[in-house]
Amino acid sequence: MKPLRMPRSLDEQMYVLFWTADELLPGLFVFIVGVLIAQKLVCLVVASVITKLFRRMKEGNPDGFLLHLGYWYGLISGRVAYSMPNSFIREFVP
After folding, report:
1. Gyration radius of the chain over CA positions
2. Which of 4, 12, 54, 82, by CA, is between 20 and 30 Å from 37?
């Protein structure tokens, strides 16, 4: 019988250098905007600050916090988050 390689964790996110993919995307978006408006250095600094703030916010809150926050403010439709009730309903009557 051949030994089977088991991953250390099944739900670990993909890393790009030092950052996870979801931490890198906001900073990368700001940097791309900086390339388009010819302000690379300024937007590189802003992108690093945004990435650091995003990491701090992500570590200080439970998993799925951004999904719930996006749904609460109407940025995510009900099809994506179908298990959550309508965020505009404030009272539930049995």
Report:
1. 19
2. 54
CA gap 8, 16 in Å, rounded: 18
What does the alpha-carbon distance between residue 35 and residue 41 come to, in Å, rounded to a whole number? 9
- Angle, helix 40-60 to helix 21-36, in steps of 10 degrees: 160
The CA distances from residue 52 to 39, 46, 48, 78, in Å, are 20, 10, 6, 30
The rounded distance, in Å, linking the Cα atoms of 84 and 62 is: 16
Residue 85 Cα distances to 8, 62, 80, 93, angstroms: 35, 19, 12, 13
DSSP annotation of 20 reads E
CB 24 within 8 A of CB 16: yes
Calpha distance 2→55 (Å, rounded):
40
35-44, 59-68, 71-80, 82-91: range with highest mean pLDDT: 35-44
